Amino acid sequence: MSSLLKISVSVLFILSASTASGGDPYRSSAGAGEAGMAYVCIMKTGFWSSFHNQANLGYNKSFSLGFNYENRFNIAELATRSAGLIIPAGKTSLAAVYSHFGYSDYRRDMTGLACGMKLSDKISAGVQADYYSIKTSGEYNNSQIITYEAGLIILPSESTQVGVHFFNLLPGSLKNKLLPTSLRIGAGTYLNKSVFAGIEGEMCTGSKLSIRTGFEYGVSKNLWLRGGYSTDNNSFSFGLGFLAKFVQIDLGFVTYEKLGVTSSASLIFKIHS
Questions:
Q1: Does residue 8 carry a pLDDT above 60?
Q2: Other CB atoms closer than 10 Å to residue 125's CB: what's the count?
Q3: Tens digit of pLDDT for each residue in 146-156?
Q4: Residue 8: which domain range?
Q5: CATH code of 232's domain
Q6: pTM of this structure
Q7: Is 166 exposed, middle or buried (0-12, 13-18, 19+ CB in 10 A)?
Q8: Domain count, the chain
Q9: Residue 221 burial (CB < 10 Å; 0-12/13-18/19+)?
Q10: Cβ distance 270 to 246 under 8 Å?
């Protein structure tokens, strides 16, 4: 890669990092369906939502496998590739997720192992252990980081869901300076059988409060339309999803005022238990 291109990619990475998944550049931005809703998802059950809030795993009843590709601003060096696996086990579900971001001079790999379960009819909880491997050009510029994340889902009513999720909440003596701490709180409701709407706020060290809103409209049993807005860079999102037998296909698009459009695509394979 030429020096000019390296510089350009580095500048774009810095400008876009804060929008990877809200204000935290280290959180995996997996899920095209979630992208279409501006990542308003910590309270909404779903395959990729389970990796944004592990408490959602408590509602998973299917053995599921998913793949996601995010093409940030149509630049291959800024692409993120993710894969996830969910294994149901009664009231508990186990999960594993992997994501890769970057190129030869900067790459970040994340592996996570998660568990989520229903504590009661109205409350579920989940936790995930994360391992980060960060490699940059040069012989000694590599880092390995271990941290955790956890979340809760509360159901005040049959149609309303509240989600809370935190990442890297550790005492100062144990916290790695490379990883920020973030807290996400959101609520969503089914306005009717076809429309879900939600709002979410995120606070992340080193960033301003981010507010996101999103909706999902079930056009039919197998087709969904999605939209959303985030105060991060004044970005709008839209997308759609389609279910064909046991395969769900999602597309998501996020616009940024100065950087262009980030597109993502997901495949989810569900085998009912």
A1: no
A2: 20
A3: 999 999 999 99
A4: 3-272
A5: 2.40.160.60
A6: 0.86
A7: middle
A8: 1
A9: exposed
A10: yes
